[in-house]
Amino acid sequence: xxxxxxxxxxxxxxxxxxxxxxxxxxxxxxxxxxxxxxxxxxxxxxxxxxxxxxxxxxxxxxxxxxxxxxxxxxxxxxxxxxxxxxxxxxxxxxxxxxxxxxxxxxxxxxxxxxxxxxxxxxxxxxxxxxxxxxxxxxxxxxxxxxxxxxxxxxxxxxxxxxxxxxxxxxxxxxxxxxxxxxxxxxxxxxxxxxxxxxxxxxxxxxxxxxxxxxxxxxxxxxxxxxxxxxxxxxxxxxxxxxxxxxxxxxxxxxxxxxxxxxxxxxxxxxxxxxxxxxxxxxxxxxxxxxxxxxxxxxxxxxxxxxxxxxxxxxxxxxxxxxxxxxxxxxxxxxxxxxxxxxxxxxxxxxxxxxxxxxxxxxxxxxxxxxxxxxxxxxxxxxxxxxxxxxxxxxxxxxxxxxxxxxxxxxxxxxxxxxxxxxxxxxxxxxxxxxxxxxxxxxxxxxxxxxxxxxxxxxxxxxxxxxxxxxxxxxxxxxxxxxxxxxxxxxxxxxxxxxxxxxxxxxxxxxxxxxxxxxxxx
Length: 521
Description:
Layout: H1 2-21, H2 27-56, H3 61-110, H4 124-168, H5 183-271, H6 276-353, H7 357-431, H8 436-503, H9 510-520
Helix pairs in contact: 2-3, 5-6, 5-8, 5-9, 6-7, 7-8
């Protein structure tokens, strides 16, 4: 057991011993090598000296033994002195290095440079200690500079993080400090501030545009409401015209029936001469009724003519309103194109400056709203064109109705004149029976003319009633189209209001916003 322990101890200590005596890895090995070299040199010199003395000078064996003993003693003293000297030198060098090593290890372990490295020595170890102390002082100064730089970096990073957070919350007036004495941060702040200037300007322009769109939509809605009111008036007028024409048609039918009775009466007068007076009275009464009906028809036609004139004026006013609506939709479409171009520029600037997702999302929403606004303007423009076409058709129908009414009035006036002639003839018949035959013939002819004229009036009245019905139907279609335009305008106004509410979440400079509004105006 002791043998095994000794072997294990020798095996464990052998590498350390070899390292200590190896002159390539330790000062002890170097000193040992120097001592052995000196001892060998001294031994060689003493051996040569003893040989020379014993062979040249010593005459006896005793003298030779004395010389040899003195040489051995001198060698022992030299070796002992050398060993102590080398041990002292080793202790001085190794001790100083170990002290310096322990102090540097303490600095490394504490992470601080407040230890003492100076050693009260003037040799190389002392100079090495002073060099280490100077290195320690330089490292301490560099560490202080690095810590100060870290504090400055942390302060700048905190300030810029707060600025980014404020911008993310919608405050576009915040800017980064461009004078931090850190070139990288200054360059980043300069680029960020430039990007935020462009973003703030774009948001201000879009906000001004959204308000302009909202105001234009409100004005258009007012115009559409006026057009809607005018269309309602036209509907009422056309319905009144249709009712008047229908009433006229019914009265013309009654007039036609009266003229038929008149013709029958005249034929009876021709066949029954003995009842001329009585039948003439009936003819006169019938003629007066026909004249009254003709007068009423003329009055109704005058009313229809006035209603037709008002309808023409209302349709013309509606046409002018459609022109105003078309101009407004053109302005809205132009503003939508400008908004789309602004949104595309915002996306390009956001992608170029890497400003984050917030500006990209804003520009995307702005572009979508601009596309929706353009589509709505195109739809409104199409509806306005359709409404203008229907208005032109309605105006043409009303003018045709007016022409037909004029023809009906002329026909009724002709019938009225004919009835007056019939009445005169009947009165003449009552005066002289001798003229009965001639008068009845004339009355028969006139009655045929009256019947023909009344039939023409009836046909014109029927056509007028149909045309008035078509005008009323087209006017209802116009009103439906105006209602559709009104709904589109309301959606456009709601979209503009929604955009304005979304943009209110962003804070921009008052001067910048005012400048944008003046530019928009």
